[in-house]
């Protein structure tokens, strides 16, 4: 089963994401902050990361720069699932896509649990395909 | 009596925008929990109710703040017991604290008599503050998931506030947050992952009552609260 790391600061939402992804046959670990996210990634070896950008102290963007600075983690697919609307990015999120390797961008208020699971499943086989 | 700028503070677009952003979270929770219930056949009705209650509390507090700021003449100030207000606040926050795994404690040691304040306003401010902190604490690097509603005597008066074991609750954090309100999605970056509207609504309600939201310490914990003046008339009795 693929390992999914979910970085989500809200406990209640995190629980729903955990349940939905676990039910879809994924190993899931949820953590609330960028700092703990890096530590968990080191131990858990995620195949995919679902990331909220609005975190306490270090933002999701800072997490991404940190993540991509390690050779081992440069190709881990990341799905952004955030409360920040896509239109709020000055460059329409191009830096996220081109420089930080974002697989998918999901706007949280418009993303159902089903859509999140579908987005994860769509990215996981693609990764497995490129590795084989 | 409210200060002249209080109406604009509570009615400011920045605060309204913050409240709108903040409301997304409990509404999102309701939507996802309902969907989860549909998928599994087991709806967590207790959690859905708690999330809806959180949204309603924030709206109520904001509306009360607007009313107090617009009609300071209606601001009824009466002798009230701080411990009783803290007890009622803890009852209001209980369900939310449970759903976030935060242990809520009431710490009222000693008898402080009564203070002069508007009961509804004070309780709304403390509830709004409490909701914001409960939401934030699990995502903070706090050694213990606990929030204490407490009162103590200081040289300025009786302090009523909420305390936890994070060093992020400082006057500096609050002031920077006030300055950044409306300019940043997270004015209280080190304290909460949301717009922090609950804290700013509490701030605005207290200002409308001519009180201040300040950082304070209580038995080794960090927190925010307000200083209330004792009712000297009743103290003599």
Structural commentary:
- The complex is a heterodimer of chains A (132) and B (237).
- Chain A has helices at residues 11-23, 34-44, 60-68, 94-98, 113-131, and strands spanning 3-7, 27-31, 48-51, 78-82, 102-107.
- Chain A has 132 residues and is an alpha/beta fold.
- Chain A has one domain (3-131): 3-Layer(aba) Sandwich (Rossmann fold).
- The model of chain A has no long low-confidence stretch (mean pLDDT 90).
- By secondary structure, chain B is α+β, with helices and mostly antiparallel strands.
- Chain B has a single domain (6-236), classed as 2-Layer Sandwich (Heat Shock Protein 90), CATH 3.30.565.10.
- Chain B is globular.
- The chains are: A alpha/beta (132), B alpha+beta (237).
- Chain A binds chain B through residues 9-13, 16-17, 19-20, 23, 32-33, 35, 52, 54-57, 83-84, 108-109, 112-114, and chain B through 21, 24-25, 28-29, 31-33, 35-36, 39-40, 47, 51, 99-101, 135-136, 138-141, 185-186, 189-194.
In short:
The complex is a heterodimer of chains A (132) and B (237). Chain A is an alpha/beta fold and 132 residues long. In chain A, 43% of the residues lie in helices and 19% in strands.
Q: Tell me the fraction of residues in β-strands of chain A, as a range.
A: 15-25%
**Domains of chain B, number:** 1
Instruction: Round the mean pLDDT of chain B to the nearest integer and report it.
Output: 89
| Uncertain runs of chain A | none
Q: What is the largest interface, and how many residues per chain? A: A-B, 25 and 31 residues
Strand order of the largest sheet of chain A: 2-1-3-4-5
If classified by CATH, what would the architecture of chain B be? 2-Layer Sandwich
CATH T-level fold name of chain A: Rossmann fold
Q: What's the tally of helices of chain B?
A: 8
Question: Overall 3D geometry of chain A?
Answer: globular
Multimerization state: heterodimer
């Amino acid at each position: 089963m693929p390992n999914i790391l979910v970085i989500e600061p809200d406990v209640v939402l995190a629980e729903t994401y955990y349940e939905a992804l676990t039910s879809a046959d994924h190993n899931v670990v949820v953590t609330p902050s960028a700092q703990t996210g890096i530590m968990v990634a080191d131990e858990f070896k995620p195949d995919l990361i679902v990331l909220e950008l609005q975190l306490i102290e270090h933002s999701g963007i800072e997490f991404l720069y940190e993540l991509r600075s390690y050779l081992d983690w440069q190709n881990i697919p990341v799905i952004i699932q955030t409360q920040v609307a896509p239109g709020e990015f000055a460059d329409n999120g191009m830096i996220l896509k081109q420089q930080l390797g974002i697989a998918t961008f999901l706007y949280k208020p418009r993303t159902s649990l089903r859509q999140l699971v579908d987005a994860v499943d769509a990215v996981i086989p693609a990764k497995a395909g490129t590795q084989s | 009596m409210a200060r002249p700028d209080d109406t604009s503070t509570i009615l400011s677009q920045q605060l309204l925008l913050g409240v709108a952003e903040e409301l997304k979270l409990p509404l999102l929770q309701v939507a996802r929990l309902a969907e989860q219930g549909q998928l599994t056949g087991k709806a967590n009705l207790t959690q859905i109710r708690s999330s809806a209650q959180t949204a309603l509390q924030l709206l109520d507090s904001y509306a009360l703040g607007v009313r107090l700021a617009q009609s300071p003449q209606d601001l009824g100030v009466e002798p009230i017991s701080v411990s009783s207000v803290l007890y009622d606040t803890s009852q209001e926050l209980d369900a939310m604290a449970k759903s976030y795994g935060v242990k809520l404690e009431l710490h009222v040691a000693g008898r402080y008599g009564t203070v002069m304040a508007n009961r509804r306003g004070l309780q709304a401010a403390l509830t709004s503050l409490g909701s914001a902190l409960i939401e934030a604490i699990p995502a903070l690097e706090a050694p213990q998931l606990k929030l204490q509603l407490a009162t103590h005597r200081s040289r300025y008066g009786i302090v009523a506030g909420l305390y936890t074991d994070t060093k992020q609750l400082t006057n500096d954090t609050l002031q920077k947050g006030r300055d950044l309100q409306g300019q940043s999605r997270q004015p209280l970056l080190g304290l909460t992952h949301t717009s922090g509207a609950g804290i700013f609504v509490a701030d605005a309600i207290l200002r409308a009552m001519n009180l201040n939201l300040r950082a304070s310490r209580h038995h080794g914990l960090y927190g925010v609260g307000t200083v209330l003046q004792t009712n000297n008339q009743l103290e003599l009795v």
